[in-house]
Design brief:
297 residues, alpha/beta, D-Maltodextrin-Binding Protein, domain 2, 7-stranded mixed beta sheet, 12 helices, 22% strand
Length: 297
Amino acid sequence: MRKKITALLLAALTVGAVGLTGCSSNKDTSAPSTDSQETGDSQATDAEDTEATGDLEVIKVGASVTPHAEILAQVKDVLAEQGYDLQVVEYNDYVLPNTALEDEDLDANFFQHQPYLDDFNAENDTHLVSVASVHFEPFGLYAGKTASLDDLQEGATVAVPNDTTNEARALLLLEAQGLIKLKEGAGLTATVLDIEENPLNLEIKEIEAAQLVRSLPDVDIAAINGNYAAEGGLDVADAIAVEASDSLAADTYANVIVVKEGNEDSAKTKALVDAVLSDEVRSYIEETYGNAVIPVF
């Protein structure tokens, strides 16, 4: 499975996809790209896109590279048969695909789970809603300078995502391994300030999620989102601890297709959702990613 995901990533690199986590540091990891256009061209109007693709109506979707953009690629032909040209704009961060959707530069996006979306809307006064739950990516603890949890020493450094919802998820995973104890009720809003017990005096280092794989040589362990782990060449089988596939997290953190409020029942949205939530896509996810990406439909 690790070889299969790695092969997919190498293939993505050869066709000019955005630089993945761990690639050259002179890349701007916040910049989007498309499979067939330069970044600047991705801002073309729908009218221009429609003209360029004949009679097909454009559906422009922002997505993380792995697995989201790869999953969407499986439905491009299906949507073309229905009169739609699916254009996937790839992002390597968690902010731009939401702001682009709010500004109506995108028709939808596919990269986040519901808790992150709720938090983003609250903090940025955006009006984005989920329309379908697609898959769950188990969050894992990965070895950096320390090979196992049993080998962690006093004052070891643990890297976690710096966005609110994913940091809470990382802390809950650390708590599940007995490394820390959080204040009662901290739950999905937990931060480092909610750590009540820290027997090893672990140093919790907050890092932007896309940079976590790159941080591994400098920290003892890191809690990494499933998609960024895959993009960085890691397999969930490499993790030294992982969320259970039948846990509450599998439901809470399912990745969702998101549109701007008011477009939930549009023809574009319905066509996109129906195409993604298909038996063919479920089989593709299971065969391609194994336990690293788990369909929830």
